[in-house]
Write a structure and sequence with these properties.
single chain, 129 residues, alpha+beta, disordered C terminus, binds coenzyme A
Length: 129
């Protein structure tokens, strides 16, 4: 697992990425997600800076960076099904809801994905319920 950060504005935002191994994905029943996919986390540094497009810009910068790494086919973001602000921000960066799952026993989340390879299928199958 590796980690790096990027941001549309280094002072305002950060998107951390973690390359996920097969064992971890399978333990979450994400069998169809390719290994070495990146699990991204994002936060905006100051409350007054949210809602200004910084998050989507940082995610687009992260995607541009990861497209240079042929091992990475997909970026995933996990967010509560109730976090509508995040869904809207992530959708602006091209992410789409793939499925719902409960990754840590704390409630249902959306897995939102961005496929980085044009020859990859655009729709992933639903995970087992
Ligand atoms: C989710 C997040 C990274 C998105 O980045 P962002 O730069 O705010 O993204 P956007 O500017 O595109 O705004 C996304 C949505 O936030 C909402 N929003 C806008 N201003 C807002 C404000 N002042 N307060 C709360 N939400 C606001 C809007 O619904 C907006 O969508 P819209 O522009 O279509 O109306 C950022 O809002 C954030 O850090 N939120 C708090 C932490 C969080 O939820 N992190 C995600 C965990 S997975």
């Amino acid at each position: 697992m590796s980690r790096s950060t990027t941001g549309a504005d280094g002072e305002l935002s950060a998107a951390a990425r973690y390359q996920v191994d097969r064992e971890t994905l399978d333990s979450l029943r994400l069998h169809d997600i390719p290994e070495n996919s990146v699990d991204a986390d994002i936060l905006i540094g100051e409350l007054g800076d949210i809602g200004k497009g910084t998050g989507p810009a940082a995610l687009i910068a992260l995607a541009d960076l990861l497209r240079k790494d042929p091992r990475v086919a997909l970026i995933g973001l996990t967010t509560s099904i109730h976090n509508l602000h995040a869904h809207r921000g992530f959708a602006k960066a091209g992410f789409r809801i793939s499925r719902q799952y409960d990754p840590n026993g704390l409630g249902q989340c959306h897995l939102m994905i961005l496929l980085l390879r044009s020859d990859e299928p655009t729709v992933l199958r639903d995970a087992p319920r």
